[in-house]
Design goal:
Layout (H helix, E strand, L loop, with lengths): L1 E2 L20 E5 L4 E4 L1 H6 L4 E4 L4 H19 L5 H9 L5 H10 L26 E2 L27 H14 L5 E2 L11 E2 L12 E5 L3 H7 L31 H6 L4 H5 L4 E7 L4 E8 L18 E3 L1 H7 L5 E3 L12 H4 L10 E2 L2 H11 L9 E12 L4 E13 L8 H32 L3 H25 L7 H25 L3 H5 L1 E5 L2 E5 L1 H15 L14
Antiparallel strand pairs: 1-5, 2-3, 2-4, 6-7, 8-14, 9-10, 11-12, 11-13, 14-15, 16-17
Length: 555
C-alpha cells in the first residue's frame, strides 16, 4: 500500500558511488565471501568464483550488468580474435575498465540529484506517495509474507542491498497494477495498469560458468561481429543514453531499440525512485518503464535464452513465424530439456532455437580459441516463474549441467543425438514404471493418479545424479553407441529396482488382486500380473542384450 511521506523530511542521503563503494557480494575461490564495488569485482575477477545474489535471479541480473560494462569498456570485442586476447590475459582489461568507470562515474551514483543509477530523478505521484520496499524485494511475495525470510516485510535496506534489488527490479519485476506517476501519459486515476514483467522475467536465462568470474564473463561476452546476434553502432548501456523521464521512450526510438546486447542487458523496464535518509533506504516508487514485447524478433537480439515457436502468437499478430523465449520449467531438471539446448548451431527446428550463447562457445571451440583444458564447461539455467496474472514470483529456477563442448559441434551429430536419445530412454522407462504404479493402485483399489505421480517423481529423482554423471563423462573421445549402451544399462538397473520396490510395498489387497474393467474386457489384475506386464514393457524399451543383470537391491 502507498505510504504517506513523513511530515519532517529526513536528511538527504549521501552519495553512494557504485564504482567505489562495496555493494556486490562475491564468492572467492577459497570459499569466503566479500562485499566489493564494481571496480573491485572486475579487478579481482580471476580470484572470484561468482557473484552471490539474494536470489539466483538477482545474480543473473547483476551478471548481465557486469557484461554490459565489460562490453562497453572494450567497445566489443569486435571479433573472435579480440576475444582471444582477452581470454589469454591474466586479468580483465582493468586499465580500460578503470578509465571507463571514471568517465561515467556520475551515472553510477545511487542518489545523484539528476541522474541516479537506474532511476528517475524527482519521480513522484500526484499525492507524493511511495510504497514499502516489498515492491522491489523479490523474496517478499505480496500477501504471502509468512512464507519468506522477511516475515515483517522489508522495512529498511542498506544502500548496498537497495542497489542490488534495484538491478533485480529492472530485470525481473512483476506485472500487476502499479503507481501512476506525474508525467506518464499511461497513468489513469493514479494507477499504472499491467504491461508485463520486466524483460529478463520473460526468458529462460542461460549462461556459461567458468572456473572463475573472469572466465564466466568472457565465455558470455559475444563479439560484435557475431552473425547470429544483431547490434549496431548505437548499442550502449542505459547510463550512456539520455536520462529517462517518467514516461516511456519516444515511439520512434522504441521501434529501433534495443540496439544490441549492451542496451538489452540494462534495459529500463521500470521507472523507479528510492527514498532514503542518511543511513537506509526506507521506501520506493515503482512504475512501468519501457515495454519490450517478446514476440518482436527478440531472438535476433537476446543470446541468453532459448526460443520456442508460438502458433498462438503467429495467429494473434498475423505473422508466419513468431519465436518466444523458452522459459524454464521448475518441475523439470535441466537435463530433461536437453533436446532444446542441443539443436544444430544457428538452426531453427520446428520447435524453436537454442540459446545463441551456446552457438558462440561452439564457435570459440571451432576456431580453437578455447584450450583443451576447457573441453567441459558448466551451463547454468536461471529464471523466474510468475503466478496470479504475473503479479508475484511463484518460483525461481536455478539448475546447471556439466557438459562437453563437443556436444555443440555440428560435425559430431552422433554425439549430440546420444545425449538427447538418453533422455528419451529415461522418459520411456519412467512411463513404464508409472504404468506399473497405476496397475498396482488399480489392483489395490486405490486412486491411480497420485501413485503415478509419486512414482514418476521418485524415478526422475533417482536418475538425476546418474544422468548428470554420465553426461559429464560424454566427450569428443566417446563412442556414441558404447556410451548409449552404458546409460541404458544404468537406466534399466535403476528402473527395475524402483519397480521391485513398488511391487514389494503394494500391500495385501493388491497381492490378492481383483477384476478390472478395461476397453477390451474384464481383466484380473494383482501384483504378480502387474509385475509381469512391467517386465515385458521394460524389455521392449530396454532389451536385455543392452543391459547388465540388475544387482541385488540394497534398499
Amino acid at each position: 500500500m502507498p505510504t504517506d511521506p513523513p511530515h519532517d523530511q529526513p536528511p538527504s542521503p549521501p552519495a553512494f558511488d557504485l564504482t567505489e563503494r562495496p555493494w556486490l557480494r562475491a564468492l572467492r575461490l577459497d570459499g569466503t565471501e566479500a562485499d566489493l564495488s564494481l571496480r573491485e569485482v572486475l579487478r579481482q575477477a580471476p580470484g572470484l568464483l561468482r557473484l552471490v545474489g539474494d536470489l539466483p535471479t538477482q545474480e543473473f541480473a547483476l551478471f548481465r550488468l557486469l557484461l554490459a560494462i565489460l562490453h562497453d569498456a572494450v567497445d566489443g570485442p569486435a571479433e573472435p580474435e579480440d576475444w582471444g586476447e582477452l581470454w589469454e590475459a591474466d586479468t580483465l582489461p582493468v586499465q580500460e575498465i578503470d578509465r571507463y568507470l571514471d568517465q561515467y562515474r556520475d551515472r553510477f551514483d545511487l542518489f545523484h540529484p539528476e541522474t541516479p543509477f537506474f532511476q528517475v530523478a524527482g519521480l513522484h505521484t500526484a499525492k507524493g506517495e511511495y510504497s514499502s520496499l516489498d515492491r522491489i524485494v523479490g523474496d517478499v511475495p505480496n500477501g504471502e509474507q509468512f512464507f519468506t525470510m522477511r516475515a515483517l516485510g522489508a522495512q529498511a535496506l542498506t544502500f548496498a542491498e537497495a542497489a542490488r534489488w534495484l538491478v533485480h527490479a529492472q530485470a525481473f519485476d512483476t506485472a500487476g497494477i502499479k503507481s501512476g506517476v506525474v508525467g506518464d501519459p499511461r497513468a489513469k486515476g493514479g494507477k499504472a495498469y499491467p504491461q508485463g514483467v520486466a524483460w529478463a522475467g520473460n526468458i529462460g536465462g542461460t549462461m556459461w560458468q567458468g572456473a572463475n568470474l573472469k572466465e564466466s564473463l568472457l565465455l558470455n561476452l559475444v563479439a560484435t561481429d557475431y552473425e547470429h546476434i544483431e547490434a549496431d553502432d548505437r548499442d550502449a548501456p542505459a547510463w550512456r543514453h539520455e536520462p529517462t523521464g517518467p514516461g516511456p521512450i519516444r515511439p520512434s526510438e522504441a521501434v529501433a531499440r534495443p540496439h544490441g546486447v549492451r542496451d538489452l542487458y540494462t534495459w529500463q523496464s521500470r521507472r523507479v525512485r528510492l527514498f532514503a535518509d542518511a543511513d537506509h533506504v526506507h521506501g520506493v516508487l515503482l512504475t512501468y518503464g519501457d515495454p519490450l514485447a517478446p514476440h518482436e524478433n527478440r531472438h535476433l537480439q537476446e543470446p541468453m535464452t532459448g526460443w520456442r515457436r508460438s502458433q498462438a502468437q503467429e495467429k494473434k499478430h498475423k505473422r508466419p513465424l513468431v519465436l518466444m523465449p523458452r522459459e524454464h520449467d521448475p518441475t523439470r531438471s535441466a537435463w530433461r530439456g536437453l533436446a532444446s539446448l542441443l539443436t544444430e548451431s544457428g538452426h531453427r527446428s520446428d520447435d524453436g532455437e537454442r540459446p545463441r550463447i551456446l552457438d558462440w562457445v561452439a564457435r570459440l571451440r571451432r576456431d580453437e580459441l578455447l584450450r583443451e583444458d576447457h573441453r567441459r564447461l558448466r551451463l547454468r539455467l536461471i529464471g523466474a516463474q510468475y503466478g496470479t496474472q504475473q503479479s508475484v514470483i511463484d518460483e525461481v529456477v536455478d539448475d546447471d549441467l556439466d557438459m562437453s563442448v563437443a556436444l555443440l559441434d555440428d560435425q559430431r551429430p552422433g554425439l549430440r543425438q546420444t545425449a538427447i536419445g538418453a533422455v528419451s530412454d529415461a522418459d520411456a522407462a519412467v512411463r513404464v514404471l508409472t504404468t506399473l504404479a497405476h496397475d498396482l493402485a488399480e489392483a489395490g483399489g486405490a486412486e491411480p493418479k497420485p501413485r503415478r505421480n509419486t512414482a514418476r517423481d521418485r524415478a526422475y529423482g533417482r536418475l538425476d545424479r546418474h544422468y548428470r554423471q554420465w553426461l559429464s563423462g560424454l566427450g569428443a573421445d566417446s563412442d556414441p553407441d558404447g556410451a548409449r549402451g552404458q546409460w541404458r544399462r544404468t537406466l534399466r538397473r535403476e528402473i527395475e529396482r524402483l519397480g521391485h520396490e513398488l511391487a514389494r510395498n503394494a500391500g495385501p489387497t493388491a497381492w490378492r488382486g481383483r477384476v478390472i474393467e478395461t476397453a477390451t474386457g474384464d481383466l484380473w489384475l494383482g501384483t504378480s500380473q502387474a509385475r509381469s506386464r512391467f517386465e515385458r514393457a521394460l524389455e521392449r524399451e530396454l532389451p536385455t542384450n543392452t543391459a547388465e543383470p540388475a544387482p541385488p537391491s540394497t534398499s
